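User: Fold this; tokens only.

Assistant: Input:
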Amino acid sequence: MSTTLLRNQRVEADDYTPLADDAALPASGKVIVSYGRWQAEREALLASSLAIGVKLPNTVDVAGVLPEIADRPLIALDFPAFPDGRAYSQARLLAERFAYKGELRATGKAVVRDQIGFMVRCGFTSFELREGQDPAACIQAIHEFSVPYQQAADHARPVFLRRRA
């Protein structure tokens, strides 16, 4: 099953391959490994010629793990279910407090059209869409709200600051 990837508000081919914990490392390319595999095989992964992205569970404290993954070109954060929004907090910390500049990817069951605009505001730059979602509608959702109410990682000027001016 292939996943549709939105990156920087465009549909793009995914140049990263998710790598199962028990899969052999390919000779070259870009892969995403679980945080567990990263911890267990970090030295071997760094010694390879691969571009390594890390997928964090939403239960991990990003402040605690950032020193070991800050230089990764991609960090994927998981939205396993609709009522679980911890990845929003992880993304804001990475984007705002820690100024992470790599690709910040939203993955999981709760990456849906109605949430993508909020995910962008939190700092996500790419999204693995669920099967059956219309990519054009998901891109449109990013622009549905023209005036934000709160400050966020996207640095859009919120309405309360516009009113003060």
